[in-house]
Structure prediction request, 172 residues.
Amino acid sequence: MKNSIDLNIKNKYKILFVCLGNICRSPAAEAVFNHKLEEKKLTQYFFVDSAGTYGGHSGELPDRRMRLAAEKRGYTLTHHSRKITFSDFENFDLIVVMDNYNYDDVCFLAPTIEAKNKVCKMASFLEKSDFTYIPDPYYEGSEGFELVLNLLDESCENLLKHLKNKHVLILK
Ligand code: 4NP
Prediction:
């Protein structure tokens, strides 16, 4: 797990966002969720990270198109791509995947039933939008990146509401 907060994350609720390459959707989800935490002064209660099921972009910054689209909305994407590991299943409380392929791949990797139960779909937190997954924008034009950011805005807001309703912050 990354950076210096590591030493101090025992009591935080830990969320890992996962997509395929960890250069478009999941680092954007990480940034959008962190932004909402900052707005609501909840940053201290969470540890947020992202990873990919495919390691071909490991070490890279997010895709330039996603960084530019995100920057226009006030999100700075600084994550470096990494592949999901077995220890992530132990270290994180919740693993939120972007599409059904990610869901199958991550569930397949889960070492235990408890680990598998930590996996959920980002689109399950959409209410207004009809999407059942967060579509991969990698081979799309700029509208694909805007759509992803719109869907992440809605789903991150609802995910945070859901966690507050579940009182995860008090339970931890
Ligand atoms: P992501 O998008 O899963 O949202 O990061 C993709 C990034 C890279 C590739 C596919 C999707 N790729 O084929 O390299």
In short: The longest helix spans residues 142-165. Strands lie at 13-19, 46-52, 94-97, 119-121. The pocket of 4-nitrophenyl phosphate is lined by residues 19-25, 56, 136, 138 (CB under 6 Å). The radius of gyration is 15 Å.
